[in-house]
Amino acid sequence: MNEPVTDLSTALKKASRSVTRTADHHLPQFHIRLPRGYLNDPNGPIHDGERTHLYFQSRPRVDLDIPVEWGHASSTDLVHWTLHRPAIVPLPGGADSDGAWSGNTVIHDGSIRAYYSGKLSHRVFQSVLMAESRDSGNTYGPPVRVVDDPSAEEGVTMFRDPFVWRDGGGWSMGVGAATAGHTASIRHYRSTDAFTWRYVGDLAALHRTTVDGTDTGEGWECPQILTVDGTDIAVVSAWSPTDGPGHVLAFPLGGTPHPYRVDDGQNFYAASVMREGPWGPVLFGWITEGRTAEWTKQSGWSGAISLPRRAWLDAGRIGTEPHPAVDSLRVGAPRPARNATVGAQIDIVVPAPATGCVRLRFSATEYLDISIDAEANTVTIDRTNASSDARAHSGCAVAASAFDDSASRPAVRVLVDGSIVEVFTSAGRALTTRVYPTQMPPWVVECPAQALVWQLRASIGTHTACDDATDPN
User: Fold this and answer.
1) Are the C-beta atoms of 117 and 102 separated by less than 8 Å?
2) Engineered SS bond to 118: which of 68, 127, 175, 306, CB 3.0-4.6 Å?
3) Under a CB-based contact definition with an 8 Å cutoff, are residues 175 and 223 in contact?
4) Are strands 396-399 and 304-305 parallel, antiparallel or unpaired?
5) 421: in domain
């Protein structure tokens, strides 16, 4: 049985006693992340009847040459997470010895099965593997290969990231792909036992193009199929071999895809969905870094998982908002946000109707602007002046069709967790970005008079060091 190492807060407090470091105010406190090391794609969120498991790509150090493994966290409420030892570790000499890459999980005959991409450096494609857990999702047995590679005649250039779901009387699997003709696709496989699979065609395919200013990608990574209000929605991550990761896109299955962005910010990728559970459809994403690789490596940590997002469908398009469980992070009663002095973990709500700017002022010269333009129906995040450190990324992100006056949701909700900023609008638009002000809190909020602010619980400690018990390597 793989017992939890401890909760994240305790693990980090132990670390802080053994290693003395300057407090890092950029370090997230209530987003899932590693005490130290590299985290990227969320994998296979699943509810087993008692708790939710969330797996993620992880490495014990910020070193991309280390084979990636499946980190593991679990929760009973989607907010308070317990960090466990890695659930899948590459098997030396096995089919995943150079990395256990992205995939998902399903419950099959009382056990949890993980389907994922196993990397071997000498192979053209990552192999579609299946491993089974018989201890409630804590550890997985040795993997077996369950899908053949595409044939050479098909011209496939990328093939990875299986996603499996129960479909009618059997099972379906989608695998992300790209072809030499610059066509991205989700390859579709069917099975009666979730073990023996046959290829039946493409669930969706699209020649690389630009839709509403967004590159649809030469290939689609991390395909997910989310059923919302009876409609099957494909969620994919646009990728190309020259430009790397792009944006997370979604579109209804059937007909020619017309993709749209799931998140309009600069730092959201590799979405992973939980199709079933007591909370309805839930979506997570990888929050990437917004600073130079050298600075990230120096800090000793990289990446986080987004807050859980509830998904709904409006006019054929997915909208998302922070899951209501996130409200439990609030400390005490709200207070007027205008000119409020705050820490690095806050929740700002601007009720509708609204216009103007929410400015989070870090210092006289450092600030983040979130502009609300009701007439243009847009929200803009401008981090041009968010950091005086040239190693931090800057620039603007814009969400169009941002407001829905008929919705009960606030015009804008801003959740800040150290360097992470997640913004949500009344129409279900989301923008995720990273900021790295040199000035430590307290900070000041400048915003419309009706806005409210809550301090949020700092639930995972404040240091990047880690007790040796949490490092399997």
Assistant:
1) yes
2) 127
3) yes
4) unpaired
5) yes
